[in-house]
Known about the structure:
The structure is a homodimer. Chain A is mainly α.
Amino acid sequence: MKPPCESKCKLLSVASRLIWENSYGAVSVDDICREADVRKGTFYHFFPSKADLTIAAQEADWQNLRPRLDENFSPQTPPLERFEKYCESTLANQRQKLQEFGKVCGCPTITLGSELSTLNESIRLKAVEIMDRYLKYFESAVRDAAVDGLIETGDPRVTAKAIFAYSQGVLLEAKIRNDLTQLETMQDGMFRLLNLKPKAECV
Amino acid sequence: MKPPCESKCKLLSVASRLIWENSYGAVSVDDICREADVRKGTFYHFFPSKADLTIAAQEADWQNLRPRLDENFSPQTPPLERFEKYCESTLANQRQKLQEFGKVCGCPTITLGSELSTLNESIRLKAVEIMDRYLKYFESAVRDAAVDGLIETGDPRVTAKAIFAYSQGVLLEAKIRNDLTQLETMQDGMFRLLNLKPKAECV
DNA sequence: CTTGCAGTTGACTGACCAGTCAATATAGCT
DNA sequence: AGCTATATTGACTGGTCAGTCAACTGCAAG
């Protein structure tokens, strides 16, 4: 028998990758099993359904991503610089995927949420949960920027949501156009949405 | 025999609606035929494949949408007001769909493009084509606003792309959250992205 | 009246779908 | 060694998938 978790972990990572590269609907349980080199019975030993595996894979993705976000949005970093770092690491991530897979794949969570929001309530809720986790980083950065007097104040949550929506829109555009150029200048739009005070010469 | 185009048009409108409400992957040719009350042979008499029907349905959707956009973005309307009108009509459209279907469905083109950008090149290209048509409205409104001295100038195309990406991000967020509240304040973010001159008291 | 043709039908194909299950294997524990 | 949990297998089900096809229909032009 393989070391504990090997089959389960392999299923999670293969599913995560295949769904990211293709779509939920286009990836079958058989596809996932084949690439994970695991038989179907094993799949259903660990996961009650394809949708449950998908939710677990989303959570695993988040856990893998979190250290990067914790670093980008560290309270040790000046607030505006956090957005800068986030834009850079997002671009780097998409660039790497493009290089190894040949296509811009966008954000796995939002792509999946978009495909299934009307079809599978538990997957939709998982996407919302992860979106809200992102939002915490954005919101605290906006709040810290306001405290530092860098931006015209307003409801930080509203501003954070606008910036997040914008970033997801840019990512989606990049995915559909299969072209990263707009992602390279994403920071400009974020700063406009922040309503930077004129005197602020940061960046 | 039915009047000419009846079967073909029914297939287009049913496909458009089903794919909008569900997803490309979740809607089968059989589903479309059943709801259009047309037999499968008829389907394949008019369309060589499911993907071809989908592309034709996207084009038909655009043709139906165009008069609304032409009105929203009429050069007769002051430039900033055009964005205002666009936000209002988009919100109204989503609200109506939510009321009759029970779920926020977002933008059909972008949702489809997001699902299939890595899987079907011709559908991806159709989505890009339609996105570029949207962009023309946005870009000319930005340019007109600059000429009127309402905004800090910059490359109008870049600004238009940012506003478009933002609007799509907000729509996507609304779809995934199944909640229209952020869509109600979309105009604020657009105006921030426009870099309105301080003196501009429009709106 | 007949010939042609776009539109329509329904039965068909073979592949694939998600999910099931009883049998088997292996690990750690006593 | 024997027991029990968990892990694994591979064959199986019934349904659905996209797409095919030969035959049929009714209209219109010659």
